[in-house]
Each structure stands twice: as structure tokens, then as C-alpha cells.
Amino acid sequence: QSVLTQPPSVSGAPGQRVTISCTGSSSNIGAGYDVHWYQQLPGTAPKLLIYGNSNRPSGVPDRFSGSKSGTSASLAITGLQAEDEADYYCQSYDSSLSGLHWVFGGGTKLTVL
Amino acid sequence: QVQLVESGGGVVQPGGSLRLSCAASGFTFSSYGMHWVRQAPGKGLEWVAFIRYDGSNKYYADSVKGRFTISRDNSKNTLYLQMNSLRAEDTAVYYCAKDTVVTPFDYWGQGTLVTVSS
Q1: Among A57, B29, B65, B82, which residue carries the largest CB count within 10 Å?
Q2: Which chain A residues are within 8 Å of B50, Cβ to Cβ?
Q3: Distances (CA, A) of A88 to A23, A42, A48, B61
């Protein structure tokens, strides 16, 4: 299982707001490491969606926003559109006995009803 | 524009070896760290390995340590992943991704499929 925990699936109707949680621990998110989010459309490579907890790369609509608090982070999507249907992954860093590793959440499938 | 193109995937028997390549263009390759990330069929993303911009430091996931080797040739703008002692559980699409200090995976390639099967 993944070091970062995400719900397997979320859904919402067009125009609605959904949130995706990402729960970690004191060795990753809680240690102060940044959280990043990636969107993977069906059959394509992942794409950077949010970086540094809450920053959007150029070209990403402001319907997407990120936040972080304690050992958790969240991705919010407002004004849901059919094109938002995809898998979403959170990512951070984890410091363990075997060193610093980059870690992903298990992914959340967003269905637009 | 940034472009990352993986190659070298294919079908290999358990215990076999394979070398993946990632050709980079559109940025100064020698200035950035690079990652390999994999995705098993129908599963999530798993970080595999990272190499610093100058090759001075390399990091591996526990699942591949001792079997996989990441390397780079800055004169050829190419990243490599040498995979030895392959197992069925290594079957996945392998992506290379560019790293920056702020964004660890800011650009991704299209991926190359590795299938380990007898």
C-alpha cells in the first residue's frame, strides 16, 4: 500500500465542487515536505497540476486549488467539467531509515456524473 | 518545448535484463535532475529512481535497489535505466520525468512498456 493515502474514487456532477484528500504521516507531509498533485487523463502520461502545496503551473485553470495542513493535503476542483474526469495523484517526500524517497498516493479516480 | 522520449521497452523473461533510454530536448539537460517512475497495469504511480544533474548522486526505491541502475550521458542528452534480475512485478509502463528544485516531476515522457513474462 502507498505511503500517502487517497480515497480510491470521488464523483460529482458538472458544475459541482469536489475535494480529494491525501493523508500522510510525520515522516512525509507532517515533516514539512511540500505536496504536489498530478492529473492523469485516460491513456496519457501524468501532468503536473499543483506544485508546492498550492501553486498552479502556467495553463492550469484556477478551478484547481491545493492546500496543506499538518499531515494532510487536499486538492479542490470547482465548477466540475467533463474533461476533468481523470486519475489524480498526490506526491511528497518521505524520510525513512533507507533515505529520502519520493512517494505518491495511491491515486483517486474522479468521475464526472 | 520540453520533450522526453522513452524507448527500449519490450518483453523479457524473468531474470533477464533490459536497458531503457530517455532522450531529452527543449531544455538544458545537464542542469536538471531526472527521475524514472513506473506504473503497473491498472495501478498507481511508483517512483523508481533519481539522478542528480551531474550524476553525482543516485537514489532508488527499495523495490529496485541492487537490481536497477540509473545513469545519464549529458553529452547525448539521454537518461538511462539498466534493469537486471527482472521479476514479474516489474511489469509496468516506465516514464522518465524532469526534476526541478520546486517541482520534482514537472515534465513527463509518454512512457515505454516493459513486460516480464515467460
Answers
A1: B29
A2: 102
A3: 14, 11, 10, 21
With CA atoms as reference, report the closest residue to A75 among A2, A7, A3.
A7
User: Which residues 11-30 of A are in CB contact (within 8 Å) with B?
Assistant: none
Residue B100 CB-half CA count within 13 A: 12
Structural contact between residues B3 and B97, judged by C-beta atoms closer than 8 angstroms: no
Is the predicted pLDDT of residue A16 greater than 80, yes or no?
yes
Mean pLDDT in residue range A42-71 = 96
Q: Which of A89, A100, A101 sits opposite B45 (nearest CB)?
A: A89
SS3 letters across A9-62: EEEECCCCCEEEEEECCCCCHHHCCCCEEEEECCCCCCEEEEECCCECCCCCCC
Q: How far apart are CA B63 and CA B86, in angstroms?
A: 11
Which residues of chain B make contact with A52, given a CB cutoff of 8 A? 102-103
Q: Between the CA atoms of B95, A26, A100 and B101, what dihedral angle is there, to the nearest 10 degrees?
A: 70
Helix (H) or strand (E) holding B26: none
Mean pLDDT of chain B: 96
Report the C-alpha gap between B66 and B64 in whole angstroms: 6
**Which distant-in-sequence residues (6+ apart) come within 8 Å of A78 by Cβ?**
A17, A63, A65
Helix %, strand %, coil % for chain A, to 5? Answer: 5, 50, 45
- Tell me the three cell numbers of residue A44: 496519457
- Lowest-pLDDT range, B16-20, B41-45, B46-50, B102-106? B102-106
